[in-house]
Amino acid sequence: MELTDKIAFVTGPAKGMGRAISLALAREGASVALAGRDIEAIAPVAAEIRALGRGAETFSCDVTSPGAVDGAVTRALAAFGRIDILVNIAGGSGPIGKTLADTAPDEFDHIIELNLKGSFLTCRAVLPSMIARRYGKIVNVGGTFGLRGRALRGAYSASKWGLRGVTKSLALEVGRHNINVNCVCPGMVEGPRFDRVCAELATRTGLTIEQARLEHAKEYALLRVSTADDVANAVIFLASDRSRQITGQDLAVDGGWVI
Fold first, then answer.
1. What is the distance of C-alpha 209 from the center of its chain?
2. pLDDT of residue 49
3. Domains and CATH numbers, the chain
4. Of the candidates 18, 16, 25, 149, which has an alpha carbon nearest to the alpha carbon of residue 83?
5. Using the 8-state DSSP alphabet, how is residue 153 labeled?
6. Which tens digits make up the pLDDT trace of 149-184?
7. Is 156 a catalytic residue?
8. More confident residue, 237 or 97
9. For residue 1, which of 44, 47, 48, 54 has the smallest C-alpha distance?
């Protein structure tokens, strides 16, 4: 129980990695403030957390809106008394299969606002209370396209590279307040999005879906694709005091793709 009695604020907790991370936090003893735009989609995750014997509350929050973020954090502080851990998961894919030259300015702006500005706003909102208590763990969920450039995913890649910059700069600014700021960078993760990628590859190449999955797995040193639980385990480590001397770092959870 690495996180007994800790309070975590999680954005984007409804499905996939968000759900896995939220439940992992609860299994390790944390109560969880679940923040997202679709409260109905978050409610089942809150119920699962309560079934584990942990506290869970849902908060309506559009991470691209400063007012909405500040309001959700204020309500979470009122409900739980403090926020020990912030995990920024909310995000999007942006344009897929488009060169930067073909990417519309509004498409570029949207993914930068969601993936980069959204995390900036939540960090900004939780920091005053963390600084006052001289304790905090911030874990931003980036991506391996923020560690390597990627053709036809330029807008998304830019947003995740930018998130690394925010992570490192913030770590330098708040380290003196005993606050750790790190970034977990997943590669491909098993789930509906990866299934769509495999289906697209199969259609384009004439492979079966299973053959397409194997082709992707060959790109990784460990010859397997990550699961949401693999990512959750990395988040738990960085949210715990076992990582007390680690800050400003990028941890790739990708089976050995970005080596």
1. 27
2. 98
3. 7-187+227-253 (3.40.50.720), 191-225 (no CATH)
4. 25
5. B
6. 999 899 999 999 999 999 999 999 999 999 999 999
7. yes
8. 237
9. 54
The burial class, CB within 10 Å (0-12 / 13-18 / 19+), for 81 is exposed
Residue 115, classified by CB atoms within 10 Å of its CB into exposed (0-12), middle (13-18) or buried (19+), is buried
Amino acid at 19: R
Candidates 108, 120, 145, 156; catalytic one: 156
**Of 196 and 185, the one with more pLDDT:** 185
Averaged pLDDT of the chain: 96
What's the token pair of residue 227? 């699961």
Cross-sheet strand order for the sheet of 179-186: 56-60, 31-36, 7-11, 85-88, 136-141, 179-186, 250-253
Q: Is 60 left (phi over 0), alpha (psi -120 to 50) or beta?
A: beta
Structural tokens at position 214: 């194997």
Identify the pLDDT of residue 204. 86
244: part of which helix (H) or strand (E)? none
